[in-house]
Fold:
Amino acid sequence: MAKQILFVQGAGEGVHACWDGKLVASLERELGESYAVRYPPMPGEDDPDYAAWRAALIGEFDLLEDGAILVGHSIGGTILIHVLAEQPPRFRLGGLFLIAAPFIGEGGWPSDDIDDRKDFSERFPPGVRVYLYHGADDDIVPSAHVHLYAKAIPHATVRTLEGRDHQLNDDMSEVARDIRLLD
Structure:
């Protein structure tokens, strides 16, 4: 049976179909048939609402089995990590991968509907592997955000990728390599 991966898209008009679909295609190509990537559209992608995305994610969590891997891009990663910190899933999490996720709080971005949180490590089940990726040439989310997450999750593996943009140049090879290392 294929290992489950839930990929949570970023925000913006047409992101699911036109932008993050390329990240998913790269991930699927790199991982092969041993992995099954779920890529559900999030509600109101052009103007994300935390409560609506939270509800959608919790519904997706109910479809996942022990060992499932969660991948979140941009604001999708931000919302994903906050939902996990509020309400850990019922399944045993196989790993958490955040790509170019904006940090909410001091030093990061403000938010009206996402709380500032610095206790991510304390909120996750023990032993969950966390990977943080950021393109050094990201002109949407400053690379300083990955370091704010690293401070909030000291056990996380951080990968700043030179010459890569917010979409990692549509190349998920490093992410796929780290996913395969979880086995």
Notes: The two ends are 14 Å apart (CA to CA). The chain has six helices and six strands. The mean pLDDT is 95. The chain has one domain: 3-181.
